[in-house]
Amino acid sequence: MESAIPRDLQEKRTCPHHKADKEYLPPFPAWTSRFENNAEQFVVVYFAIQSLQSIHFDEHRKVTQYFQKNHLPEYWVPSTYRDHLGFYHLVVTIYWSSTQVFEAWFRSSGFEAWWKDKEREAESCGYFLEVYYPKISEFEMIFSDPKTPEGLAHLAKGMSGEIQEHGYYGSMRDRLPIAQTHLLQAESITKESRIEVSKKRIQIKGKENLSLIRSGQDWSHTVGNERNIYLKHVEPILRHGMNFLALDGKKEGCLSCRYMRVLDKDTGDEIDKTFGLAHFKDLKHLENWAKSHETHTAIFAEFMSYVREMQFNISLKLFHEVMVLPAKSQYYEYIACHSKTGMLQDERSFIQ
Fold first, then answer.
1. Do 218 and 317 belong to one domain?
2. What's in the keyword line of the UniProt record (predicted)?
3. Position 290 in a domain
4. To bridge 111 with a disulfide, which of 8, 66, 281, 335 should be the other Cys (CB 3.0-4.6 Å)?
5. Catalytic site residue from 154, 279, 320, 338
6. How many structural domains is the chain composed of?
7. Cα 145–chain centre separation
8. Residue 278 β-bridge partners
9. pTM value surpassing 0.85
10. CA atoms within 13 A of residue 330's CA, in its CB half-sphere
């Protein structure tokens, strides 16, 4: 059994390790991604269109048309969601394995000129661009199935063997390379960090040690009773937890949450995949919600009931991707979006 942290990223720990002992055996198998030893920094982009009217899938070409140029992304996936104010969103999540390649694409493909054009501010829809630059030490991933990569795993060289650090609270931090030597605490928010480029174009400064979790579910291979249990019992509890974070998560340190349905790249049809994307003030707030809040304990209890009923033989596939980032590795820009969108939400309510 392997450590989730590859050897080339292992350091002498100066921060607590939560695993009980070296002989610990997880209750079920899990895997993580393995990257090339010279991997340094990646780019994850969320490009979105926002509208009170339904958005045709072809609108994704507003960004993907620029993929036909040089410096193509390694992976992209479309998704959709409708927020609590009734706004539709078409989201394209895009991954690059090099900041240099991404920046060259941004400048030379024509996308930057399109994005910065003042015409964007005059359109009937809104847009946002959220960009993250995680170093190899600043994220961790876990999968219930080693043959189904998601997200950053599409940029990896492959999967690990079974890993040891999972199945207990605190294991997320134990899998994160940077947490070996850093506590990753949130900064104190003392003032608003909005930058008004224009009346309709707002940038938001990054936050030190922001924790971003993308947690996904794939039920495309479930059938019969298993599919029925998941869709009628597990998924509604999951959706309730995501709605709580979106509407009332501030008290738990959640700055934003979206629960999205993945779309087929070619047709735009909904497929049997979802993922929640949540921003937490820091890793501790994410850990506390996962460990003790009633909405997450309900998700865990319902999931375990489902697993037991299926006698621990399930076709549901799960993964998550967690990043803990310095302020300088985050970029947010919103064009004509409503005030409850993403990191635009009133930051004064987070000041402590």
1. yes
2. Heme, Iron, Lyase, Metal-binding
3. yes
4. 66
5. 320
6. 2
7. 18
8. 213, 257
9. yes
10. 21
